Amino acid sequence: MMTTVRFAPSPTGHIHIGNSRTALFNWLFAKKSDGKFILRFDDTDTERSRAEYADAIAADLQWLGITPDRIERQSSRVESYDTAAQKLKDAGLLYACYETPDELERRRSRARALGRPPVYDRAGLKLTDDERAALEAEGRRPHWRFVLPNHDGDPFTTRRTEVSWTDLCRGDQSVDLASLSDPVLIREDGSYLYTLPSIVDDIDMGVTHVIRGEDHVANTGVQVAIFEALGAPAPVFAHHNLLTTRDGEGLSKRKGALSIGSLRDAGLEPMSVASLAVLTGTSHSVEPMAEMAKLAEAFDLASVSRSSAKFDPEELNGLNARLVHEMPFADVEGRLANLGIAGGETFWLAVRGNCVKVSDAQIYWQVVVGPIESLVEDEDRDFLVTASKLLPEGDITQDSWGAWTSAVKAETGRKGKGLFMPLRKALTGLGHGPDMKDMLPLIGRQNIRDRLP
Ligand code: GLU
């Protein structure tokens, strides 16, 4: 059977770097096994889901280098969910409940006060037809719960029921179904919570592996039971640790923190974001991988650690710089042109080692074409006047800087920083930057003359 995975975001906000970890894990897993990647929008919550968010998520994935083989929307598959729900109802596994959220909360508080686990008592399952009719006559609408298979025929006497699976990240896992409330699958307004649609989709779309965050481990116990109730084998599961910032704070789609869009707008390379998102919290060191194929080589679900994956957003700049320093001209040619930079490969190779982001090349292009604000300290004025007179004749080449500074040194007796820094500041307006040997030919004789007093 072809390996098939899915990334299933709810389009209720922009995806952040933590969500991209899940997307990339699925993508790399599919790539490594020549499988298929489905982008599935879990948009059954019509109040909060928005088409703009779905479009933005697809664009963010594209930017990261993920091109789904198939895109699905749960909102267009409701009939399949209705069929599955009917099947469960016919089997007596889906029952109507009428408690309001307040009533449920009161019951939970009472259970906690008595030292009992706040598990739903299946009161809905005891209702007679007449009682249901009376509640509906009051204007109540039912929500529907799935009866967990945690009993031996009498649902009011539960027994410990372990659902076990071998998790590709966490090893052997089990969840006791007697410790959980029967999950609500259908809301009062008839809309589906994500649980059932997710299973129906995974079955219909031939999903072989479910790779998602560890916040879904308890859901997996429930979902395995529903797969069984629907007569389908459960897929293989992998629950990865979640990315958190250094202070341990989780990322929230709603807060917009570290969204993929904001990282893109900040000028970061998709591969530095992807490298950090994938390699943090694994046994592999966090290194910038220039290509998805390289990242795929470094990626292994079994190397994902059990503890949280903490990262410092600042690390992104360091990774990005390392990628940019090695970036071939062919990879940036178009982007440099879009930034109005016409210096070609010579310029790029001269400046890339000083760029954290590709867009930093603009700083040095400005130095090349000018105008710049030349920095000339009063005490260096005479020195610079002398230097100007000693500028070698002929073409300015990569050799010119060495020849020029030797001549200036011989004439003025200055050396080291006292020799180079005033020249750099006068010619570039900056106290640091690419090698002057490379910059000099790019700046050119006219600019050199104009920038020296
Ligand atoms: N929509 C769910 C989420 O974003 C999907 C979880 C899953 O992959 O099953 O958390």
From TrEMBL:
Pfam families: Anticodon_2 (PF19269), tRNA-synt_1c (PF00749). This is Glutamate--tRNA ligase. The keyword Protein biosynthesis applies. Catalyzes the attachment of glutamate to tRNA(Glu) in a two-step reaction: glutamate is first activated by ATP to form Glu-AMP and then transferred to the acceptor end of tRNA(Glu). One of its GO terms (cellular component) is cytoplasm. It is found in: Cytoplasm. Monomer. It catalyses: tRNA(Glu) + L-glutamate + ATP = L-glutamyl-tRNA(Glu) + AMP + diphosphate. CDD domains: GluRS_core. A motif ('KMSKS' region) lies at residues 250-254. It is an enzyme of class 6 (ligase). InterPro entries: aa-tRNA-synth_I_cd-bd, aa-tRNA-synth_I_codon-bd_sub2, aa-tRNA-synth_I_CS, aa_tRNA-synth_I_cd-bd_sf, Glu-tRNA-ligase_bac/mito, Glu/Gln-tRNA-synth, Glu/Gln-tRNA-synth_Ib_cat-dom, GluQ/Sye. Residues 4-317 form the Glutamyl/glutaminyl-tRNA synthetase class Ib catalytic domain. Its EC number is 6.1.1.17. A motif ('HIGH' region) lies at residues 9-19. The lineage of its organism: Bacteria, Pseudomonadati, Pseudomonadota, Alphaproteobacteria, Hyphomicrobiales. ATP binds at K253. Keywords: Aminoacyl-tRNA synthetase, ATP-binding, Cytoplasm, Ligase, Nucleotide-binding, Protein biosynthesis. The keyword Nucleotide-binding applies. It comes from Roseibium hamelinense. Residues 378-452 form the Aminoacyl-tRNA synthetase class I anticodon-binding domain. GO terms for molecular function: ATP binding; glutamate-tRNA ligase activity; tRNA binding; zinc ion binding.
